[in-house]
Specification:
It is built from 2 helices and 16 strands. The chain is mainly beta. The mean pLDDT is 80.
């Protein structure tokens, strides 16, 4: 394995690989020309720089970050806003730009991305991030299970339909789908099956007649009649689970457990 920075002057540059959930892989390097290695062409992006990379030998989460200018054609402001880079896998390493020997220093996934219109910064999360999740569920009045997911017991196919986009309102970030007149789709999910946001899930914030307001911007290149899948939503309350779905036996919550406010109540006399 190539040992880097073991001499006063080294032919080293940093590189990034981004693997988006739609199957697109992008490579960048801080070198002043493109470099191809590991089966990926890394485009010169001198404006992109990594922040400090912190690796630990214990179970605490490793951390890293990347900053850059919105100047490269592969990273556009519209794509960031449309969520194409959300939860993308990422690798950061160092490469010898003469021999193309390279080592990966950090691997993880993209977390929060901040964009001020001129530049962007991205938080990177290592595989240790999953260790922060609670292994033992906490009590809650609402259901903790993902709708149609593990623990819910309902089949997603029974609540999912194939539709197409009849109209798009880019200003209000909403789409129109014929035949959707039910509020059952609030908190549901829309997934496009074609176009620049293929496979990206959209949360449904509200329903007004046949218009669905979405939780992320619709890409400007999305066309009418784009096929999509739409899944109903659930507000995770016991009443909805019992009356609408008849699934109270699988409810993963404690709707009748007294809350913390019980401890703060004043005693009242019976006289």
């Amino acid at each position: 394995m190539r040992v880097f920075f073991d001499r006063e002057l080294d032919t080293a540059a940093t590189f990034w690989r981004v693997f988006r959930r739609d199957g697109i892989a992008l490579g960048f390097t801080s070198h002043d020309r493109n470099l191809t290695f590991g089966g990926v062409k890394h485009r010169a992006a001198p404006g992109m720089v990594p922040t400090a990379i912190r690796l630990t030998s214990d179970l605490s989460e490793d951390s890293a970050g990347v900053e850059g200018a919105l100047s490269h054609d592969s990273i556009r402001e519209a794509d960031l806003g449309a969520g194409l880079f959300d939860s993308a896998a990422i690798e950061i390493g160092v490469v010898d730009w003469e021999t193309l020997d390279h080592n990966i220093l950090y691997s993880g996934m993209l977390g929060q991305i901040e964009d001020d219109g001129v530049g962007f910064s991205a938080e990177l999360r290592s595989a240790k991030h999953v260790l922060e999740h609670d292994l033992v569920p906490r009590t809650s009045p609402t259901c903790r299970a993902l709708f149609c997911g593990p623990g819910c017991g309902l089949s997603a196919s029974n609540f999912t339909s194939r539709v197409s986009l009849g109209a798009i309102d880019f200003d209000l970030n909403r789409v129109q789908i014929s035949g959707i007149v039910s509020s059952n789709y609030v908190d549901g999910q829309l997934r496009l099956l074609a176009g620049p946001q293929t496979g990206i899930p959209f949360g449904i914030l509200s329903v007004n007649a046949t218009w669905l307001t979405l939780d992320r911007p619709v890409h400007a290149e999305t066309k009418l009649q784009t096929p999509a899948e739409i899944k109903e939503g659930c507000d995770h309350t016991h009443a909805t689970c019992s009356t609408r779905f008849g699934n109270a036996v699988n409810f993963r919550g404690e709707p009748f457990l007294p809350g913390n406010d019980l401890l703060a109540r004043y005693g009242q006399s019976n006289g």
